[in-house]
Amino acid sequence: MLVLVIEHDEDRADAFFHALSDRTRRDILRRVLAGEHSVTALAASYDMSFAAVQKHVAVLERAGLLTKRRVGREQLASGDVDAVRSVASMLSELEEVWRGRIDRIEELIQEG
To answer: Helix (H, G, I), strand (E, B), or coil: what is residue 26?
Structure first.
């Protein structure tokens, strides 16, 4: 059972980091974390097609970093602060592992 949890966490991390690897998606995420925006309004800010912006929004949604809701003909996107905190937590854990390794290397150098 632990293996399944770890694999799920790894899949989630992959989705997060894939979503955040693109500059436009990071910008969209910043905007929807500040407040709800229609996908149409988001698309107006970029020099790309509406369909391209929709794809970026879909990547963020699949990663769980934003949610969409429909109001009439409009799709409204909101950032998920808890999901962003989860990403920050993952990064903190990785930092802790690497700091421990660096500390150990420094100890070995001083002993050697």
So the answer is: helix
Domains, the chain: 2-111 (1.10.10.10)
pTM of the model: 0.75
Q: What are the distances in angstroms from CA 95 to CA 8, 18, 36?
A: 21, 19, 32
Q: Is the pLDDT of residue 6 over 60?
A: no
Written as six digits, the tokens of 60 are 């963020």
What strands lie across the sheet with 74-79, from one edge to the other? 37-38, 74-79, 66-71
Alpha helices in the chain (DSSP H): 2-20, 23-34, 39-44, 50-62, 81-111
Query: How far apart, in whole angstroms, are the C-alpha atoms of residue 91 and residue 110?
Result: 28
Task: Characterize the bridge pairing of strands 66-71 and 37-38.
Answer: unpaired
CA-closest candidate to residue 19, choices 49, 62, 48, 51: 62
